[in-house]
Structures are given as structure tokens and as C-alpha cells.
Amino acid sequence: MTFSNLSTIDPRSTYDTMQDVKFKAFKALSKKIDPNKKNFKNVLDKEIKKTKLKEVAQQFESLFVNMMFKSLRKNLNKHRLIKENPAENIFSDMLYQEYSLQIAKTGEFGLAKQIYKWGLPSLDISA
User: Fold this and answer.
1) Four-residue CA torsion sign, 127, 102, 109, 53
2) Which of 34, 41, 53, 124 has the maximal Cβ count within 10 Å?
3) Is residue 3 part of a domain?
4) Which ranges constitute the DSSP H helices of 39-85?
5) CA 66 to chain centre
6) Measuring CA to CA, which residue among 43, 44, 47, 48 is closest to residue 18?
7) In the prediction, which pLDDT does 83 show?
8) Considering the domain boundaries, does residue 5 fall inside one?
9) For residue 75, what is the DSSP state?
10) Which range of residues forms the domain containing residue 48?
């Protein structure tokens, strides 16, 4: 039995429900607009789309950074003196996945911001 597919599991995916997205969008929107206004539902729908796009962009950036880390590790591990352990591989996969999630959350890499900018026109909403 191999554990190589464990690195592809995103632990956040089980918690990423539509209710969480709606709550985040409602929280952000309630600071801007009074919930009693007539167009609140339309604005809320737009805010939900923006929030979901931002999360998907961050997940893609995390995936991209994780792929970069994997290729870097593959090249670095060619010249090891000690043979690799399967447990070490699993741990390093999980560690680099967490690194990539944290890099995507900070937004310093910049890929998620660019994807978000590119995705807004396709949603027919403005920033």
C-alpha cells in the first residue's frame, strides 16, 4: 500500500462549504451596505462570487507553489548520501503542502491576486 496520494488531499476542502462562503461574504458586505436595502440580495450574490473566486485563486496558487516545491525537492534529493525513508517522504509532502498553503494565504507570491483580477470580468461583476 502506498501513501503517495495523501499529499493530494486538501484538508480544507472538507470545511469549504457554501455556507462558509456565504457567511464570509455576508460579513464583508454587512460592513458596507445596510441589509434592509432592496438590492442587498443582488449585492450579496456578487460578494459571494467574489469570495469564492478569491478562495479558488488562493487554492490554485497553493497548488502551483506546492508543485514548485515538489520539483525542487526531487532535484535536491538526487544527491543524498542517506537513502530516503517512506515516512520521511510523507512528512515532507505534508510539510511542503502546509508551506504552500501559508504562502498562498499571505498573498506575497501574487499569483492569486492576478487570477482574481483575471476572473472578475468573467463573473460580470466589478471589483
Assistant:
1) negative
2) 53
3) no
4) 40-76
5) 11
6) 48
7) 75
8) no
9) H
10) 16-122
